[in-house]
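Board notes (copied after class):
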Amino acid sequence: MKNLRNFALAASAAAMLCVPTSASAGTADEQIRKLDIMLMVTSLRCRMGSNDFQHHYRKFSANHLSTLNGAARRMEQGMVKRHGSKGAKRKLDQISVGMANQYGQGHPWLGCAELKEITSDLSQSRDPTVLAQAADELLGPRPLSGGRYARR
């Protein structure tokens, strides 16, 4: 829990400084949506054995429900503005299917044990800035040093 508090403080400080994230392949809302999909898909993949973290994923989803729903809603509104109603639905489906396909075989540099620990940590917080920081680190390239998840 101490690490999570330190992580939350660092994430809050970065958010206040408006530091651009390395996961800039989409809006913050899109990154949060992708984080949710990645955790959901990998929790399903890891459900057999000692590293099953579906319980942690469900708790994560419940504790961050308003943030996750708000991000999805704002993301959809932005897509509707850019692509129209039908185009937005197709684009959102493409993103969801793409994420499911990308992580269906596992995370590129984290195993089930690490994902279980990370999801457990994330499930204990209700701070939305923690999600933005986690998305930045978990969806980007493997951190070489200094990242919350670099030493796992």
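Comment from the instructor: The CA atoms of residues 7 and 148 lie 7 Å apart. The two ends are 16 Å apart (CA to CA).
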